[in-house]
Amino acid sequence: MKPLRLHPDRLFPAETRTRDIARALYATVSDLPIISPHGHTDPAWFAYNEPFANPSDLLIVPDHYVFRMLMSQGVALDQLGIPTVDGSPTESDPRAIWSRFAAHYHLFAGTPSRMWLDYVFTQVFGLDVRLEPATAALYYDTIDAALKTPDFRPRALFERFNIEAIATTEGPLDPLLHHKAIRESGWGVKVVTAYRPDPVMDPDDPRFIEKVKAFCAMTGEDVGSFAGYLRAHEKRRADFRAAGATSTDHGHPTAFTAHLSRPEIEALYAKVMEGPVSAAEAELFRGHMLVEMARMSIEDGMVMQLHPGVWRSHNDAVLARFGRDKGGDIPMPGEFVRALKPLLDLYGNDPRLTLILFTLDEDVYARELAPLAGHYPALKLGPPWWFHDSPEGMRRFRENVTETAGFYNTVGFNDDTRAFLSIPARHDVARRMDCGFLARLVAEHRLEEDEAFELAHALSYGLAKQAYRL
Amino acid sequence: MKPLRLHPDRLFPAETRTRDIARALYATVSDLPIISPHGHTDPAWFAYNEPFANPSDLLIVPDHYVFRMLMSQGVALDQLGIPTVDGSPTESDPRAIWSRFAAHYHLFAGTPSRMWLDYVFTQVFGLDVRLEPATAALYYDTIDAALKTPDFRPRALFERFNIEAIATTEGPLDPLLHHKAIRESGWGVKVVTAYRPDPVMDPDDPRFIEKVKAFCAMTGEDVGSFAGYLRAHEKRRADFRAAGATSTDHGHPTAFTAHLSRPEIEALYAKVMEGPVSAAEAELFRGHMLVEMARMSIEDGMVMQLHPGVWRSHNDAVLARFGRDKGGDIPMPGEFVRALKPLLDLYGNDPRLTLILFTLDEDVYARELAPLAGHYPALKLGPPWWFHDSPEGMRRFRENVTETAGFYNTVGFNDDTRAFLSIPARHDVARRMDCGFLARLVAEHRLEEDEAFELAHALSYGLAKQAYRL
Amino acid sequence: MKPLRLHPDRLFPAETRTRDIARALYATVSDLPIISPHGHTDPAWFAYNEPFANPSDLLIVPDHYVFRMLMSQGVALDQLGIPTVDGSPTESDPRAIWSRFAAHYHLFAGTPSRMWLDYVFTQVFGLDVRLEPATAALYYDTIDAALKTPDFRPRALFERFNIEAIATTEGPLDPLLHHKAIRESGWGVKVVTAYRPDPVMDPDDPRFIEKVKAFCAMTGEDVGSFAGYLRAHEKRRADFRAAGATSTDHGHPTAFTAHLSRPEIEALYAKVMEGPVSAAEAELFRGHMLVEMARMSIEDGMVMQLHPGVWRSHNDAVLARFGRDKGGDIPMPGEFVRALKPLLDLYGNDPRLTLILFTLDEDVYARELAPLAGHYPALKLGPPWWFHDSPEGMRRFRENVTETAGFYNTVGFNDDTRAFLSIPARHDVARRMDCGFLARLVAEHRLEEDEAFELAHALSYGLAKQAYRL
């Protein structure tokens, strides 16, 4: 068996002087509480504090980073116990699933998943040998036994992880009962929601009309008028704020925005509520609604997040059998300069608005996003996202945006994950990479050391708290 | 107060062997005279040698790198004394402006502006403490006092900066009186102009027709015929050459070129001179005129520069209140392969033509620009421009273009600035980054040391002089 | 005269610890046999083992990397002896050609050509002084003398280069006689062909119809029916497999694929066989045929390679006088996500298919290719290609794809060259760069050392052999 240990210098540049500076910087931020302002953990975990089922259900079945890589190398999703849309059975033995994972663990060499998982194995479960076929059973038994103990229930882990604040993401029809249960339990930690209205803003959703009807019904608003629909948003935003939300999130296909006249948007609303519309009309509706969301954000103070540019569920066969979010989402080219202009023309200079932009197209970091964020008061840049939430991705982000947008137009780190156990690992990677980047600037005499210490704190903690008003 | 000093190893790679090589290379080029073949200094400074007004008017108000960053973090342009289009008043107290700048100086951490400014503060004004609120008054007083002395007048600074040759940029209607005054003053330094005919080549300019009329009038040519319009260009090019110009500069929205037949362009000229034309017709006119400019360059020997791909004045509110060039310009994707083909089909193989290409879209460095410049005799690559005139930008440029285009298809450094005092700082950054890049190649045994010394000289001095025929 | 020697640490990172790891890794792979699964050497060399003519005909005239750079700096192709389309004479003195090359050898500083050439000069010909005008004659004489000896005939070099397997590329009309001659000679080394059917799949080829007719004629199939045309492909694929082929190669303008119904493709086939079709129809035919090729690959086990995205022969004047492949090919933006969907919908989840993707647009590495290859079982990523077959290109490839696709969705190195003598140099560069990349991961504690040794072997040898089924 091979030893498994996390090296204290991991992710720091190898060059001695730079590494020493990185170490010193990291020492001041490694134990800071975690601010997790954008993610997808399940609030039910924290509300009811039930134990996690077993190692495979916790670490493999819900983690699309993991099973997409296994699938790419010929392990069928059926063999990994991924549930099917029609309920037809797939592998049901979690030990068999874990074995297959262990047999292919070498595939993750050099990937962030590998780093996150090794962190979880060592830091959360105390394992000290590497995962491979020979240790698969040891792993399974160790993790499974731990999960049955009180120390590995969600709230205990949450406290152990030193999370100061975490945001989940809920849809506009969510009754927010889990968040209510958390508050009423008197647990006293900061778990807040975020308002993600995509399902009632996207006419391309096959169940859009039905959802908008339910949305207006649950708020007691008139679905027959655009004014009623807008009031439904306002009411639900208020509900979300009452559940602690400080932000909205928008996962549109593109960053397109539009500002229609009142008669135009009323007519378009009537049309999208009647039935199928063209792709252009659906885009126009989404684009106009982003502008409405910006207006409401100015009014109610919620920070706005835009996550555009993904081709969801590219693999038809996987979508048909296993549903959405199964590792088949592929990035698309981004465009922000033209797309955001209507919104920016109205609100870009308004310091009350904070619009945080994310992209999966790294080409726009230096060309579009940094120049925009380095000019418009309302714009900030979210951290490297999804495929780019990785050491090289983080390095490219800082190298590409800092010189034009500086550090203070960025907003710290988001883990953006439903993999609860990986949250400390992800924040640790971000803190290490940021310290490494700052260390390089210091070692190259492009930044003074005292500034680097201030920035390390800001990037690890302060900027996220401030930008998200947490 | 925190000490401010420029570290002698700044911008060199931290790794010891590489840094030592970089130091040795830099030592041979640090004191070379500055060749500044493309920029936007005001020739009136050198013609009349008046003192600069005060620290804020010199270093903040005209520097869009500076005030765009401040604006992005909520400092209104009004508070920074930026003059308005309608003359309505903004902050008029230069000390108050300077204070606001000092209070936000931390925003520039990690940006090239910070490096340039610290260079100016220490090397030009002898300051040795860092700018922060506590030192704002000291800074203001020190700089203000210096500006009142003869040593800080434009010509004294020019000589102190060791500028061997500098090009300004003038429009086609400019009478070139300042350049005349410089020549007639017998000062004996090389300040030349460059011909930038955009205003009379761009039908999208709202005052295009009026400008073309003035252009033909000032040259005594017939505005009613395309032939007359072309002759006006030829005459003005001759005027500019007489004022020392060795280059033209073209700031088009795209790199589009076109070659129309004589009847086609005559008809199009008549149309653009009649009134508003479509976007496509305006693009066609600009594109054809680039080809005419290339032809004239072959005839008169002027080097041609193309700076495409910027969305000018993206922020409507800023444009309306403060006018153009106020930090709201945003890059756009570039395309050169299709765009330049008509021009290259005619003149790309003609060694008499030098067409220097610039881009704000770094994606095209390796994909389009290096392959084109590594093939066509007429093409050369300009240095990293504007947002990319920065350490990381320079590093990416060399890493992306060198392997396909080599060093000798590039043309040294351009400061491209109206911030006169920053010129030595900018050239110093470029020399350091180039030496660092060469040092890495030597340290990795990809280049011999004697070649690196030759190249350091070429990149710092020789290539610019040669490419621009200065 | 300046000494010429290859430094044993060349291309390794300069940082001491990282370099030491790179050295250790490289020591285990430097002598591995070469697997060259994709290239353009001439099988006639190996079939008939004739001596190469002279230094210039061997190293300059056929190497578009070399003469494109010379041309870009004003050396006319005529002066380099490049043969013309119409047979009109160009420089015929190989010594004069070699002299011109030597006089401009400094242009290659920092390019991969320089590294490959120096490798050939020292390792193949034993030269120990640098090429420059003063040594041009020494070089010419040394190389010329060597070429006249048996040790420098193709087979001797092949064996000296330790090539375990090499694939050439032949068109669909090639009688494969050279490959037959190699087999029949009993030489007993692995020289295989690859099936590149572009000429009979691309209606934009001016001689397309004529070629398809010959193609059907040589296979005895009915050119009048699409079924006959498909059977001709099947027969020729079988011929190629008999000549050792394990792969097909497709050099399309884009990655576009399409799946037409049988009546639709039959009608389109009839149309393209009648005469000129629109650009869209030609694209549709090529796109559908890629899907047919994927189907056949599943049936016959041939690995499929797609090399899209090049504007061939951009320079009209060079094309007219010197023909294709003369250094005037320029990359174009790539798009794979939409383009490949029809093919992937049919066969993307089929583990029997291996489709290896190449690109000249590095923007798609992290955005499109790594996410696709990290999901679809049928997809693998080819190595950095052509302009990017270079140290920085290789570094960018690994940095951009590894975190999402891992190492095992890549396929080792391709030299893709007709420059036979450069093959060991190119593989050496790839091995060194991969070892350097792995060393960085180890030095930054992102990869364990034992894994790095395994991966170094896989990237240098194992993955190519496995992916190409050699």
How do you describe this structure in short?
Chain A is of the alpha/beta class and 470 residues long. In chain A, 48% of the residues lie in helices and 6% in strands. The first copy, chain A, has a 4-stranded parallel beta sheet with strand order 4-5-8-9, covered by helices on one side.
Structure description:
3 copies of one chain form a homotrimer. With 470 residues, the first copy, chain A, is α/β, with parallel strands linked by helices. Chain A has 2 domains: 16-50 and 159-467, TIM Barrel, CATH 3.20.20; 51-152, uronate isomerase, domain 2, chain A (Orthogonal Bundle), CATH 1.10.2020.10. Chain A is 48% helix and 6% strand. In chain A, the strands form 3 sheets. In chain A, strands 4-5-8-9 form a 4-stranded parallel beta sheet, with helices on one face. The first copy, chain A, has a 3-stranded parallel beta sheet with strand order 1-2-3. In chain A, α9 links the parallel β2 (163-167) and β3. In chain A, α10 packs across α11 (226-242), α16 (363-373) packs parallel to α17 and α18 runs antiparallel to α19. The model of chain A has no long low-confidence stretch (mean pLDDT 97). Chains A and C meet through α4, α14, β7 and α17 of A and α15, α16, α17, α18 and α19 of C.
Per the principal axes of the C-alpha atoms, what is the gross shape of chain A? globular
Largest interface: A-B, 46 and 48 residues
Give the total of domains of chain A: 2
Mean pLDDT of chain A: 97
Structural class of chain A: alpha/beta
According to DSSP, the number of beta strands of chain A is 9
- Give the neighbour order of strands across the main sheet of chain A: 4-5-8-9
Q: Could you spell the SSE succession of chain A in H and E letters?
A: HEHHHHHHHEHEHHEHHEEHEHEHEHHH
Radius of gyration of chain A, whole Å: 23 Å
Largest sheet of chain A: 4 strands, parallel
In terms of quaternary structure, the protein is: homotrimer
In angstroms, what separates the terminal alpha carbons of chain A? Answer: 45 Å
Helix content of chain A: 40-55%
